[in-house]
Amino acid sequence: MGIIDKIINFIDERYFKYVDTPGWQSTVPQTMKGFLEGFLKKPIPDYATHPMYCLGGLAFASFLLQIVTGIFLGMYYKPTPEEAYNSVKFIMTEVYLGSLMRGLHAWGANIFIAAIILHTFRVFFTGSYKKPRELTWVFGVMVLGLSVATGFTGYLLPWDQLAYWATTVGLQIAGTVPFIGDVVVRWLQGGTTIAANTLTRFYILHIVVLPISIFSILIIKFLMIRRQGISGGL
Amino acid sequence: MKKSTRREFVKYAAWGGIGITTLTSVPIISKYISPNPDWPAPKGQIKPGPIKIADLKDITPGSFTLYNFNFGNVPLVAGLWYLKGKVNHQIKGATKSTMGKDMGGGANENVGLPEEIVSYCLLCTHLGCIPKNWDESKKILTCPCHNGLYDIANGASIVGGPPPAALPAIKLEKRGEEIWAIDWNDKNYLKNLEVYNNKGVI
């Protein structure tokens, strides 16, 4: 018995094959092997190997890249008005390959959103959003919106002139929403001007709230795609 | 040798690629994470080690300036004097404090500088205040807390007040046209000073 089999057996005995209530039918596959095979060995139709069908996967890959590079940037970034710009400068000039890490994060953000938009076009023009996949489409649009929000909040974090004025413009646009615009702007700013509170709010949205929301929706979306399969194209 | 199928080849190539990428990223990521001793100190903090404290042209006889330094454990304040007149560096074991203890201050051992340039750490050996009331005519430094008096021209020895020992001297060095504070003149001397031990200087 090889080491991998031993590990699989170890997990099987403790999770997949273990049932504490006799007679209860588990929805989990009865072995880890069965689980992994069902998970990884789903056949893909021929038409889905076309590059246009890889855009969703590209978006997810760049999302994972954003998570990894974001964690590494977070090791040095300091979300206060005094330190934010200096810490970004520090990452760019002092940290080993820090400029590469920040470059990957900034360019990866663009690729992420571009891939999502192209993926949306693909789904739209192949009619893949039709029944039974309407909910998958709705979740996809949510991911698009949350991704743009993540990009917007991340843009403020370097705390330079570009970031400050981009956020000013963005929040003024948000302020034009009828009835609730003013409240939304005040909540996002954490005050009446863009200041320390805005930076910390955008920071926590950017690194915690929005990524976790995106990730949760993506899990639901992937489960649905697994269930429904990839639509048959035109 | 068994001929591998196309599927096997692709499989091994893919796993090999993933493996090589993962392995090579380990040292790079370790280097990214590990702090570099050459990084500049954060704002408001002083990097441990020798520090440039003045330009030679900026200090004239009779001048007294303060500077911050950090020889590895805690940041402290020190005074830099360019004294007028005779200076006695050799007072080891010669200082009698008012508390009756016999503790000599460190002699200044400056490299390449006039002997009138001296530097002492400004952390009162009594209770750790910063003695910086300087009387140029008497060459006496007074601690404002309990009126401890230090004779700077005589190795910062105590001439009055409650301090138990002289201020520790700092070794200076001329580097180009700059004055650098290098280290404590006598690290062993610090071990006898209770205040310095409590502050974690040693």
Oligomer: heterodimer
CATH superfamily of chain A: Cytochrome Bc1 Complex, Chain C
- Beta content of chain B: 25-35%
Mean pLDDT of chain A: 91
- State the helix count of chain A: 9
Structural class of chain B: alpha+beta
Topology of chain A as a string of helices (H) and strands (E) = HHHHHHHHH
Query: How many distinct folded domains of chain B?
Result: 2
CATH architecture of chain A: Up-down Bundle
Task: Give the domain tally of chain A.
Answer: 1
Low-confidence stretches of chain B: 92-104
Structural class of chain A: mainly alpha
Unreliable stretches of chain A (pLDDT < 50, length at least 5) are none
Helical percentage of chain A: 55-70%
Per CATH, the class of chain A reads Mainly Alpha
Largest sheet of chain A: none
Description:
The complex is a heterodimer of chains A (234) and B (202). Chain A contains 9 helices and no strands. The mean pLDDT of chain A is 91. In chain A, helix 3 packs antiparallel against helix 5 and helix 5 runs antiparallel to helix 6. Chain A has a single domain, classed as Cytochrome Bc1 Complex, Chain C. In chain A, 69% of the residues lie in helices and 0% in strands. By secondary structure, chain A is an all-alpha fold. Chain B is α+β, with helices and mostly antiparallel strands and 202 residues long. Chain B has 2 domains: 34 residues; 148 residues, Rieske Iron-sulfur Protein, CATH 2.102.10. In chain B, the strands form 3 sheets. In chain B, strands 5-6-7-8 form a 4-stranded antiparallel β-sheet, with no helix packed on it. In chain B, strands 1-10-9 form a 3-stranded antiparallel β-sheet, with no helix packed on it. Chains A and B meet through loops of A and helix 1 of B.
